[in-house]
Amino acid sequence: MTRCGVVVLAGRPNVGKSTLLNALVGEHLAIVSPKPQSTRLPVVGLLTSGDAQFIFTDSPGLLEPEYQLHEVMRAAAVRAIDDAEVIAYLHPLAEFPAPPLEQVAKLKRPPRAPVVTVYTKADLAPTSTVLHQPPPSSTVFVSALTGAGLDILLETLRVALPESPFHYNPDELATQPMRFFAAEFVREAAFELLHEELPYSVAVEIDEFREEQSPVYIRAVVYVERASQKGIVIGEGGRTIKALGQAARAKIEALLGGRVFLELHAKVLPKWRRQQSSLKRLGYAR
Question: Which residues, other chains included, contact 248 with Cβ-Cβ below 8 Å and sequence gap of 6+?
Fold first, then answer.
């Protein structure tokens, strides 16, 4: 009998959820940044291995909300935990031991799904004494960068998956449309190229996506909250927005496996992070 189910990667911001998702599925799907809180919407990656199909969900970090966007992100993370069939609770090994998931997620009761505690970034704590002791049950140590522990993690998760037919074609890697990833890769480029707090004020909306032509044509709008931020995004002579486009296009082409023409425009959407109507328009809120 095959096994299949939703495995939610949960934890505080910057514990390595996106890096682990990409390592597990073998494809760059989720934004990776040293800056915390880069994941705003759950990213779903698929891995079919042998008799098991893992539906990995990279959820937003369990943060302390400061404004409306944070509220939406935390709510999405808690919903993902509620919907999970297995929970991989991530915590950096250097900060061992992990506090209870119920405490971090502020749950009123323990989650119904089985929880596997995953200590991440083991390569950054090679001398940790915990590594030289038998791990507690349902506990795994991994490094997404070196690949250490990933096989053990997959087997631990596989055993916890419910018996079920596969939900997706074994060749599929993701459940979201390509235009979702196109917007995410533009945002990832913003995290790489823009400084200080500016990437957190950036939202991306795909205006047009023509996948039937070659090269694939994509027009996207980069929203910021203030006119001064728009000037920074564009840059002198348009240099910055051109660099953003080049970086994002390379990522999109790698995932799409073909040439892309990416056209970016910068616009101001005042206080979008704090307004429910703007969050709904941008797909962050229901």
Answer: 182, 185, 186, 188, 189, 262, 264
